[in-house]
Amino acid sequence: QATEGVSLDAQEAALRAYCAMRGLTVAEVVIDAGVSAGKALATREGGATVQAIVGKGKAGAVVAWKLDRLFRDAADCLDVTREWDRRGVALHLVDLGGQAVDTSSAMGRFFLTVMAGCAELERNQIRERTAAAMAHKAGRGEFCGGQAPYGYAVGADGSHLEEVADEQRVISIARELRTSGLSLRAVAGELNRLGFSARNGRAFVGEQVRRMLEAA
């Protein structure tokens, strides 16, 4: 967490204090500053370093600040920690629901399993709420960020979408062609034959036609 939450320096200090309290010698400090925990541990630079250290038998424990700083979902968490268990490497989390836990005990392992499932549930609920909010805004014609869909442009107020006449005409033709029974690929080919092109100036393809019709 390089820009928000508990600072990296404060996290490192807390981790070192925890290790001192538990009699653990710090072999190496690994930091993934600003890297999303939405990626699997092994695909992140810091995560790959941790895995390499564990794989070479150079550590008997991995100590981390929070569960969601390490793993993207419950499956990633359980797969990785199961392999660590086989190697005799315990995971210590300094702040797991407000308390420290380590997987060197059966109770610690059980608690980690439960909390990993709870964390994934919370993330999925957040995604659902975000998707619902974005759909509500889109339904009201409000701009939700990113690039405006084909057929529309962001209005002067920066929050509402306005129709682009030329692009709306292309959408109407595409809809008529699709209704006549043509495949998405065939509709794209017909639009290209008629002299129309995608917003980037290139020829239409079937996937663009699908997105275009869904957003209209």
Task: Report a brief summary of the structure.
This protein has 216 residues and is mainly alpha-helical. 50% of the residues lie in helices and 10% in strands.
Task: Note down, in words, how this protein is organized.
Helix 3 (74-86) packs antiparallel against helix 4 (106-139) and helix 6 packs across helix 7 (206-215). The chain contains seven helices and five strands. The mean pLDDT is 83. The protein has 216 residues and is mainly α. The strands form two sheets. A three-stranded mixed β-sheet has the order 1-2-3, sandwiched between helices. Strands 4-5 form a two-stranded antiparallel sheet. It has helices at residues 8-22, 45-55, 74-86, 106-139, 165-179, 184-193, 206-215, and strands at 61-64, 90-96, 99-102, 152-154, 161-163. Helix content is 50%, strand content 10%.
Task: Reconstruct the topology from this structure.
Layout: H1 8-22, H2 45-55, E1 61-64, H3 74-86, E2 90-96, E3 99-102, H4 106-139, E4 152-154, E5 161-163, H5 165-179, H6 184-193, H7 206-215
Parallel strand pairs: 1-2
Antiparallel strand pairs: 2-3, 4-5
Per DSSP E runs of 2 or more residues, the count of β-strands stands at 5
Helical fraction: 40-55%
Number of helices: 7
What structural class do helix, strand and pairing data support?
Answer: mainly alpha
Q: Name the helix and strand elements from N-terminus to C-terminus, one letter apiece.
A: HHEHEEHEEHHH
Low-confidence stretches: none
How are the strands ordered across the major sheet?
A: 1-2-3
The rough form would be described as: elongated
State Rg: 25 Å
The average pLDDT score comes to 83
The biggest sheet amounts to: 3 strands, mixed
Separation of termini? 39 Å
